[in-house]
Amino acid sequence: MSARQTAVVTGATGGIGEAITRRLAAQGWSVVMVGRDAGRLRAARERIRAASPDAELRTELADLSLLTNVRALTDRLDPAGIDAIISNAAVVANLGDHTAEGIQRTLATNHLAPYLLLRSLGESLAAAGRSARLVVVGASPAALRRVPVRLDDLGFADEHPRGVPPSFHPFVAYGRTKNMNAMFVYSLARRLAGTGVTVNGAHPGIIRNTGLGRDAARGLLRAFGWTQWVNPFLPGPDAGADTPVWLATAAELDGVTGRFFVRRKEVRTAPHTTDDARLDLLWNESAQLVGLPG
C-alpha cells in the first residue's frame, strides 16, 4: 500500500488542472485525475508520467455538469484515502445551454458540482476524524465585485446586464459562479470548523491555455477564449497552479481555513460574498438543487 498522500484534482486533463496534477506528482503525491473525456485523461496522464516517471496517477471519468455523475464519483472516492481535493473544473457555456438534468451548464459545472462533491466528502472526512484540505479554484476578487450572485436567479434565466453585449453575457454568468465559489468556501469552512478539514479558495491569475470560452459559438466570448488561448504575454498554467498547490501542501497552512488567496496572499472578497444571510441563502438553494439537506 502506498504511503503517499493523495489528492483529487478535477478538470485535470489540461491547463491549470494538469499543471496542478504535475506539480503534486513531482512532490510525491498520488493524484486522482478527474475529467470528462477518457482520451484526454489518458493523454494528460501520459504527459505527466513523461515528466515524472514515478508518478502515481489514477483517472476517474466524470462529467461534472451532471449531478448523477458527481454523486457516482463521490461514491467511488474513499474518504479514508484522501488528503486534499482541488476543485478546478470550470466552463463558460451559453446561457441557453442546459444539461440533460435541466440545469444551466455553467451553474452545474462551476458551482453545484464542487458544492456536492466537496460538501459530501468534506462532511465524511470530518465525521471520520480525518484531516484534509479542500481547495476551490476561483477567480479575481477585484473583477468579481461587479457581478454579485443573483440569489433569485441562480440559473441565469433573466441574465441581461445593461451595457454588456449579449454575446458576452455567458462570461458575466461565469463570474457570478466564481463568486458562488467564494461564498461556498466560507460556508463550508464555517460548517467544518473545529474538524481536521480546512477549506480555502484561490485565484490562479489570468492564465493562457485554459480554454475558457474557446468553445463558445460566436461573438466577444469566443474572441476572448481564443485570445486567452494564444496570448503569449499571459503566464502559463504552471503559474496558475502555484497557489492552489501551495494551499493543498504547505505546512505553514495547517489549520488555516475559510480564506481566499491570490499569489499566496490572503485577500478579502466583496462584501456581497461574505454576508451571512446571503451565504445561508445560497447554501440552502444549492442544497435543494443537488438534493442534500440545507
Characteristic terms for this protein:
294 residues, alpha/beta, Rossmann fold, eight-stranded mixed sheet
Describe the structure.
This protein has one domain (6-290): NAD(P)-binding Rossmann-like Domain (Rossmann fold, 3-Layer(aba) Sandwich). It is built from 9 helices and 8 strands. The chain has helices spanning 15-26, 38-51, 67-76, 105-127, 141-144, 169-191, 219-230, 237-249, 276-290; strands spanning 6-10, 30-35, 56-61, 84-87, 132-137, 197-203, 259-262, 265-267. α2 (38-51) links the parallel β2 and β3. α1 runs parallel beside α2 (38-51). It is globular.
Average residue pLDDT: 91
Strand order of the largest sheet: 3-2-1-4-5-6-7-8
Fraction in beta strands: 5-15%
Distance between the termini: 38 Å
| Helix count from the secondary structure assignment | 9
Uncertain parts: 214-220, 226-230
Query: Which CATH class applies here?
Result: Alpha Beta
CATH fold type: Rossmann fold
How are helices and strands ordered from N to C?
Answer: EHEHEHEHEHHEHHEEH
Which bin fits the share of residues in helices? 40-55%
Radius of gyration, whole Å: 18 Å
CATH architecture label name:
3-Layer(aba) Sandwich
Count the domains.
1
Backbone structural class: alpha/beta
What general outline do the C-alpha atoms trace?
globular
Largest sheet: 8 strands, mixed
Number of beta strands: 8
Write the CATH homologous superfamily. Answer: NAD(P)-binding Rossmann-like Domain
How is the topology of this model organized?
Elements (H helix, E strand, L loop, with lengths): L5 E5 L4 H12 L3 E6 L2 H14 L4 E6 L5 H10 L7 E4 L17 H23 L4 E6 L3 H4 L24 H23 L5 E7 L15 H12 L6 H13 L9 E4 L2 E3 L8 H15 L4
Parallel strand pairs: 1-2, 1-4, 2-3, 4-5, 5-6, 6-7
Antiparallel strand pairs: 7-8
Helix pairs in contact: 1-2, 1-8, 3-4, 4-6, 6-9
